[in-house]
């Protein structure tokens, strides 16, 4: 599975499901360090977007 296809899949799933998918994949011993960094950055950006979203609310 390519990274682009995976990104499309994650974007199309609900946030909770996407987070559980990320959590499950980060626990797999077969993931490379590059993939772990990719998932970490993806999760961090999700959290950052959520924080910005809630900060904009009055």
UniProtKB/TrEMBL annotation:
Residues covered by the Gram-positive cocci surface proteins LPxTG domain: 24-57
Origin superkingdom: Bacteria
A Pfam cross-reference name: Gram_pos_anchor
InterPro entries hit by this protein: LPXTG_anchor
Keywords: Cell wall, Membrane, Peptidoglycan-anchor, Secreted, Signal, Transmembrane, Transmembrane helix
Bilayer-crossing regions: 37-54
Name of protein: LPXTG cell wall anchor domain-containing protein
């Amino acid at each position: 599975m390519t990274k682009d296809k995976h990104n499309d899949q994650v974007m199309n799933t609900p946030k909770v499901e996407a987070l559980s998918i990320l959590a499950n994949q980060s626990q797999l011993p077969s993931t490379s360090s590059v993939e772990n960094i990719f998932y970490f950055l993806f999760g961090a950006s999700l959290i950052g977007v959520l924080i910005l979203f809630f900060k904009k609310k009055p």
